[in-house]
Amino acid sequence: MNDDMFEETYRDVAAYSDGAHRGHEKRGSPEEPGSQWFDNEAGPLVRPYAMTGGRTTAGPQGAHFDLIALVSLDSAAPAAADDTALGPEHRSIIELCRTETQTVAELGAGTDLPVGVVRVLLGDLLELGCVKVSRPVPPAQLPDEKILREVIDGLRAL
Amino acid sequence: MGSEHSDDTATGTSAALALKILVAGGFGVGKTTLVGAVSEIRPLRTEEQLSELGQSVDDTAAVERKTTTTVAMDFGRITIRSGLSLYLFGTPGQDRFWFLWDELSQGALGAVVLADTRRLEDCFPAVDYFEHRRIPFVVAVNCFAGARAYGAHEVARALDIDRGTPVVLCDARDKDSGKEVLIRLVEYAGRMHTARLLDSVG
Fold first, then answer.
1. Domain boundaries, chain B
2. Which of A156, B40, B59, B169 has its CA 20 to 30 A from that of A121?
């Protein structure tokens, strides 16, 4: 059943890249007759959810982290030199957060992992007390006039 | 580094704030270009894997099969100040990724619907989507070279959008032009929000 699921995933990646390339005339575009996919184009060697031990949802609370939820380090985060704790993917998340507070989407791009996988790993780190994750402000309370003013002025100043 | 807690509403404005703006529109209309033009970082690409419940066509089997779909999304960032950032997400253009929009639009400040006058109908679904969910949006007409120029009013009429919804002409490749689009959106989102607050008390 798992195999089926992943096959589906890869076909979809292929379908999407195919469409995306068609419009932009990327060199070596995969749809050329007889062409083959190499390296990154061919997709990851390790199936994404292998890094989560097959888990697809985060933690016992089943928390669903928003794409722009902000992640920062918490007290139990291991020191930079400590490479014995946690797995390499967990550690790369921690290292990214060490430089700067990161959004879930940025962590996905920074670790080159699908957001779904990042969410599971974040659930682990949250439980261990290594990171703090902020809930994005609900839209109904959000656009405080002062903040929107600040955003507009900030955009003008860019 | 500002630290925030899950109950950050109590701490007020000192908490870090991330705002989300969506960039929608038909395939190849310039969403990625717009995100890239205004973003301070090279547009990043992130992959979202979502599961859908696919229903079997065969009724007698009544089997529901779960499949996952991978969608790549472009996003960019604009830091207003320390602790206040705008994130732009280019929504996947294909119709079959509609389900992803629900997640993306949750908590979004607003949306930019990019339109190309040579195939205006491509942006109809996005307009419908945001109108239906009452998410503030502006229509930004990407003025492609060689495309016949229409005025903003003509586009607004052709789209039959609610009066007041801003229509802006833009060049998605140009940073200042992109900035102007975002400014119009934030201003409009603010007006919409205030109007709704008044509605809810009156």
1. 16-201
2. B40
Task: Give the tens place of pLDDT for each residue, A125-152.
Answer: 999 999 999 876 665 555 578 889 999 9
Cβ distance A22 to A29 under 8 Å? yes
Sort out which chain A residues have CB atoms less than 8 A from B16's CB and list them: 70, 101, 134
pLDDT of residue B197: 78
Q: Which chain B residues touch A150 with a CB distance below 8 Å? A: 80-81, 84
pLDDT of residue A19: 41
Instruction: Give the ipTM.
Output: 0.78
Q: Which of residues 91-120 of B touch A (CB under 8 A)?
A: 92, 94, 103-104, 106-109
Q: How far are the Cα atoms of A72, A77, A91, A116, A126 from residue A132, in angstroms, in the given order?
A: 5, 10, 15, 18, 6
Does the pLDDT of residue B11 top 50, yes or no?
A: no
pLDDT over 80 (residue B43)? no
Nearest CB to A142; choose among B15, B44, B109: B109
Domains of chain A plus CATH, in order, are 1-43 (no CATH), 51-137 (1.10.10)
Q: Are A5 and B68 in contact (CB under 8 A)?
A: yes
3.40.250.10, 3.50.50.60, 3.30.830.10, 3.40.50.300: which CATH number matches B16-201?
A: 3.40.50.300
A85 vs B83 pLDDT, higher one: B83
What single-letter amino acid sits at A48? P
Residue B179 touches chain A, beta carbons under 8 Å? yes
